[in-house]
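User: These chains co-purify. Model them together.
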Amino acid sequence: MISETRFRRPSDAEKSLLKRLLEADFPARNELAPMLDDLLVRTIDDDGGLELRSQIPGTAAVVKRIPVEAEARDEDQVVIHALLHTKDGRPSELEVFKEDGSRVERMPPASKFELIVLPPAPSSRGKLDPR
Amino acid sequence: MPDDWRERWRSWLNPGSYAHPNSPAGGSGSGFSRTPGSTGYSWSPLPDPNSPAGRFIHWQTEIWALEQRERDELAHHVEKLETSLAKQSDKLRESIPDGYLRTLYDLQVGGTKGTYGSAKSLIGTGVDAAFLLQKLTSPVGWLDPDLQRKVQQGFSFGFDIGKAYAVLEFGTLQEKKQLLQHLRTVVEGVYEDAKNSVQRQLAEAKRTGKQDELIAKWIMRILLEAGTVMLGASGLKGARSAAEGLELASDGSRVAQAGKGAIKSISEESEASKLTQFAEARELKPPTRITFGHGARHLAGTGLERGQVENAIAKEVQATAKASSSTGNFWGKVVVEGQEVYYRAFTLSDGTINIGTYTVGAP
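Assistant: Joint model of the two components:
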């Protein structure tokens, strides 16, 4: 597994994806935006998942752990999910996974990602999406 | 046990209740026959019935309260045994190299976990200790039957099953605690041995190129166990057609023979379809294959372990799959040790359900 031990500045592609996520309208978006603008990252898995460490202090009044997410198709047409996680009101992870659990073949450009702001999770089991 | 301090107060009319030894219902019956001085009973948490303090005590209530305290303390020890077992089982599971096999293992351990839980009811109810040991070590038997046999024959167990039965039934609190501690130590050792045995068997299978055969053998053993536990003898009748030349009867030994034959058949013919056929013949739909992404990293700091969480999710997803004609993509929630874990499931074209991610607390 490709996992980095040190934090670094995000690559252009990573920055673009984070910015893309901020194009959605969701609670605490404006507070999260500067935090995501100045941050260090660390690759934590083969899919390109990142641990996020914002350099900007403070917390955002997010109402969900995953305030925003996005999805796009990989070259093999399997859907890639990108989830922005927060912890205690601060960005903590950009999780990337494919629905079939396989590795991402080629990360689509940020513009290809469709943004999703899910309502809070219901209290029991249900359908994830109507696709 | 002869030195049980409660004996002094036990009613001769009704041994299940207690009375002052000098009362008509207490001691040795009507009249008082005990000689003064120490009775030789072990340390008693209640005052002497002839002492000034002893005259003002409601014996029944006091003894019930003390017994309740003993039960609570014992329950705590049983809980520790269960936690230890769950951890050992998780470690053994992690050593299993095949996802499908792990799913089967999860299903079966889910079924036997009730047995671990039932250890609580063993205290004072006199359930067969041999049965308990058999159940506690059955996951070991799926992967290394020789090791389980050795345990059951008592070679490495270090105590006599009959004695264990007597302790669970009649022992003092201290004796029960010691037995549970001993049981825990032994079972931990057995699971450790089993883990090493899995590694050894795998290494040997890799060397001889018989990895698939080994995994098929393990799967078959677990399916057999599932048949015995979940279906009972009647459900096994259908195995007749799949396992050629086997005679099945209602007793366990014949079932074991049937399994052995079927394993041999698979091994010789190397046909994976035989396994499915065998399972279907026994009315056992092969479980849905379940895979997990990297949700486990979201457990950091929650005190939850990957094994227990993924077992719980797998169990629920299996139940969902079993109850549905198709599953598609869905999300769900399980509660593990009081914490809610939310997961996202994606059904793939081959029927596998991939748990893309999960989080503790609402996502």
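The first strand of chain B starts at residue 290 and ends at 292.
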